[in-house]
Design a protein that fits this description.
The chain is of the alpha+beta class. The chain has a single domain, classed as Thiol Ester Dehydrase, Chain A, CATH 3.10.129. It is built from 2 helices and 5 strands, in the order E-H-H-E-E-E-E. A 5-stranded antiparallel β-sheet has the order 1-3-4-5-2, with helices on one face.
Length: about 120
């Protein structure tokens, strides 16, 4: 999944910093989107996943206009409780690692799982 960094994606815009470079919260969201795609083959139509843990190092800044490719690879699961673990990474347009780490998710039923 490839994204172009816009002003709306910056730490300044997201309130997570005061510089106009890719904000960590947006980067995490892009990495989580990659885990959703990687989990799809393990899910029934009625299922989705929700995040349970994020361990990611944001290693270098990316300016507005730069591109980021986020990817995820399933490394464990699903186990008997529906837990999944993913290795995640983000690289920029020149192939430099912007972030890497792990994200955990759990399988849940889409309908009714969060009804009040």
């Amino acid at each position: 999944m490839t994204y172009e960094v816009t002003q709306d994606d910056t730490a300044l815009a997201l309130g997570s910093g005061d510089v106009p470079v890719l904000g960590t919260p947006r980067l995490i969201a892009w990495l989580e989107a990659a885990t959703l795609e990687a989990a799809r083959p393990k899910l029934a139509d009625s299922q989705t996943t929700v995040g349970t843990a994020v361990r990611v190092k944001h290693r270098r800044p990316t300016r507005v206009g730069g591109t980021i490719t986020a990817s995820a690879k399933l490394t464990a699961g699903p186990d008997e409780k529906g837990r999944l673990s993913f290795s995640v990474s983000a690289v920029d347009h020149d192939g430099s690692t912007v972030a890497d780490g792990e994200i955990d998710r759990v399988i849940v039923e889409r309908m009714g799982a969060f009804a009040s």
